[in-house]
Structures are given as C-alpha cells and as structure tokens.
Amino acid sequence: MQKEIIISAHELTKTFGKGANRITAVDGVSLDVHKGELVAITGQSGSGKSTLLNLLGGLDKPDSGSITALGEELTAIKDSRLAEYRRRKSGFVFQFYNLIPVLNVEENIALPIHLDGKNVSKKELDAVLKLLGIEDRRYHYANQLSGGQQQRVSIARAIINKPPCIFADEPTGNLDSKNSREIISLFKRIIAAMGTAVVLVTHDGSIAAEADRVITMSDGKIVSERVRSF
Prior knowledge:
- The chain contains seven helices and ten strands.
- It is an alpha/beta fold.
- The strands form two sheets. Strands 6-7-8-3-9-10 form a six-stranded mixed sheet, sandwiched between helices.
- A hairpin with a 2-residue loop joins strand 9 and strand 10.
- The radius of gyration is 17 Å and the shape is globular.
- The N and C termini lie close together (8 Å).
C-alpha cells in the first residue's frame, strides 16, 4: 500500500544567468515525496540536485512548473506565506550545520519556534534532545561540540516543529564514515518516531544506498530512479 503523498512537483524548471551564460539547473523535473519516506538525490556536481532540493523545500521558486505541499501550491503563494511555510512545515539540514555560535544547544534548537513568536515546550525539547542523543550537551556552544554533535543539533533544530518533511543538503559531507552512518541512522529513527519524510542530497553512494528511493540527476534532469518497497 503506497503511503500518502505530501509533496508533488510537476515539470519544474529553474534557470540561472542570461544569454550565453544561461544555465538550466532543473529541467522539467516531476516527482512525488511520500510520508515517512527517505529519498536520496544523487548526481555529479552541477547536476541540479541541490537546486531541486531548494525548490522542493520552498527556499527558491521555479521559473515554471508547480509544487503542491500538504495541499497548498507553493508556487502560487506570496513570499511572506512561503517563509511561514518554511518555518512551520519544513526542516532544513545543511553540510555546514549553520548553528548560531552565541546560542547554546537548547537555544539553537528552539530558534525556529522563537522566530515564529512562540515558546518551546520543555517536554518537547527534552524529547528531541533524547531522540538525537545530545541530552548531556544542552548547555554547550557550537565550539564545544564535535562535527557529529553539531550536525545532531542541526537536525534537532530541523525537527523541533515536527515538520512533515526534512530537506538535507549533503548532511554528511563534513563527517567521517562513522558519524555519517550515525546521521543516517538518526534520520531513520526520526522517520520511525515521527513519520517525517526526509529528502537528502548526497554524493556518497553508501549513504544513498540506505534510502527507500534513489533519484539520480544529470544536466538538470532525472535520469534514473531506484525504488525499494515500503
């Protein structure tokens, strides 16, 4: 039985530059993302995988095509509403962690909720810290954490709002193989606990092999797709 579709993209196109310098980063891409699915997007540098991730997550808008997320067409809403969608309905994890150095672990995790003018529940914060295995680091700052610990904080920040989907751009790119495997295990644990979908960009074949579905891109197009049964 196929799971619920939470994001549906149709014929997405995104270009950069003009004239002779014009590059088509995403070229007529269509795909669906299902609830509780781990999707890996792979391809060589410049294949368009990060651009596609940014479009799906609402960080950028396509030149043409449509994206429907949770019943709302992202390509048709105003920028202010799109920013609200990103805060409340999407979680983002990046290669370089993007932690705020003057905030401790708890404060970094709670940041998306505070930016939305709300207070984080201590119960929910404790649950996220436990899920990510960083309870004993809650008052530490980024410069007091290892790379693997920093990425765990970044992931905790991404899931504190319980988003339907997490978008991760090369989340293991700065980590050794041991920490990389642990991060993928954490994503699977989050999926099992929360039903959240995870869409990640990776150049690492061993990481991609852990996904339910592997999408390979080249020159802005999807050139292959491998699906594992749910």
